[in-house]
Prior knowledge:
Number of domains: 1
Shape: flat
Number of helices: 8
Structural class: mainly alpha
Largest sheet: 2 strands, antiparallel
Strand order of the largest sheet: 1-2
Amino acid sequence: MTTPHFAKVSPSLYPALVAIFVALLLISNIGAVKLISFSFLGIGPLITDGGVFLFPLVYIMGDVLAEVYGWKAARRAILLGFAMSILAAATFFLVQISPPADAWQNQAAFEAVLGFVPRIVFASVLGFLVGQLLNAYVLVWIKKRTQERKLWARLIGSTVVGEFADTLVFCTIAFYGVITGGDFITYVIVGFVYKTAVEVILLPVTYRVIAIVKRREPTYEFALTA
């Protein structure tokens, strides 16, 4: 009797981390279609978008991938996220232009929320690509100089560079001219400061996640002792 053959599942956490990274990105991109206005401690209105809730976690996962697996592995995950973002946009576009069933009366609502808007899609994917590649590159660049020391420096340093580039590219392409004057500057600053602040506040969590992943990766432990 012939035994069926199956490929072995790698014990590495890398595939699972990449899956989480891409999922957070796609959910954030969908949330980002809504602009949000709020006041904080009497300051406002402050304008941002729905991506603020999860998008900082995309950078945290990007930090984990770059810190543990290096530039090439992080770049692979970033390019996969980039490709999946384009696929999601293309899928929503095909759904949008497909004739709705007679019993379905929500075509206008679908187009308003998930409709294909080339400017927003281009802004989102380009901002993500530029920001994440800079984030990973800066983190690895700093790590080459600090080795296993000063993790906080490379996490914060890479975040500041990556988030600023991402926020500036996205806001400029997506909403420059739609949001004007001081409101546009506020939009950029609030998005950048908020996302960066969240990552700084969550540094203890990021430290813990990185430590767990490093311990679970035998090749990392081997590299440390080699």
